[in-house]
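Lab meeting, item 3. Inverse folding demo.
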């Protein structure tokens, strides 16, 4: 019986995650699944939450979710449909579905309240979706619309690297190395405000400060087109990079 359940789980998880990049390209930021009963949820931060249970016994979509950052490890998304009120509580921690060897980086609790009825709670695991091409080294071409010139760096052209699984960001300002932590949430890069720098004297300390401040403690949108990475703040491209071979 357990073997059959594992097979059913694998098929259900596969149906949720098989689209992968297609879901990301269609705006899905987070996907989660659970068992007993089997269920799946997809969250598009700009559009809504989409929930379904196995066999579509329960299936609905909501309006745009409200996002609440509880702390560094927990985020809550709340939204409503015509009938249901939904809260998705996402916590950063290793999560096992209990039936297979799959380990996810986030645990998920879904609270569903139907009008006039008691709240139902479901537990599961999930992942933020992202463009895997982001995991690379990117050399800075433009900063706030202005092309980077040789006199702005003394050591190497400024660049960043992003390690998605390790949740690390780092690089060089053109003089000093820097490193910190980051989390990729859909098309958003969440960067810690604790960025460490080496302490060499630079020709243009002002540019270095501006470069670091443009990332430190920020939630930036990103897009990748034609081997170029664009970091966006409030709808405006603030940094443009090209992929380093």
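The presenter then showed the designed sequence:
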């Amino acid at each position: 019986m357990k073997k059959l359940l594992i097979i059913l789980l694998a098929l259900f998880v596969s149906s949720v995650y098989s689209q992968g990049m297609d879901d990301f390209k269609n705006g899905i930021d987070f996907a989660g699944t659970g068992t007993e009963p089997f269920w799946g949820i997809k969250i598009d931060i700009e559009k809504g939450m989409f929930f379904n249970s196995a066999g579509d016994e329960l299936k609905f979509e909501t309006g745009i979710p409200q996002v609440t950052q509880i702390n560094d490890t927990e985020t809550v998304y709340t939204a409503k449909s015509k009938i249901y009120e939904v809260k998705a509580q996402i916590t950063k921690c290793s999560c096992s579905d209990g039936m297979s060897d799959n380990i996810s980086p986030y645990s998920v609790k879904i609270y569903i309240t139907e009008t006039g009825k008691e709240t139902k709670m479901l537990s599961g695991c999930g992942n933020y979706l992202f463009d895997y091409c982001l995991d690379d080294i990117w050399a800075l071409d433009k900063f706030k619309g202005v092309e980077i010139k040789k006199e702005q760096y003394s050591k190497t052209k400024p660049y960043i690297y992003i390690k998605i699984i390790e949740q690390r960001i780092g690089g060089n300002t053109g003089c000093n190395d820097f490193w910190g932590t980051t989390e990729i949430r859909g098309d958003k890069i969440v960067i810690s405000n604790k960025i460490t720098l080496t302490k060499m004297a630079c020709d243009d300390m002002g540019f270095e400060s501006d470069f670091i401040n443009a990332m430190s403690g920020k939630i930036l949108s990103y897009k990748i087109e034609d081997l170029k990475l664009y970091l966006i703040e409030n709808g405006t491209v603030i940094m443009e990079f090209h992929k380093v071979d």
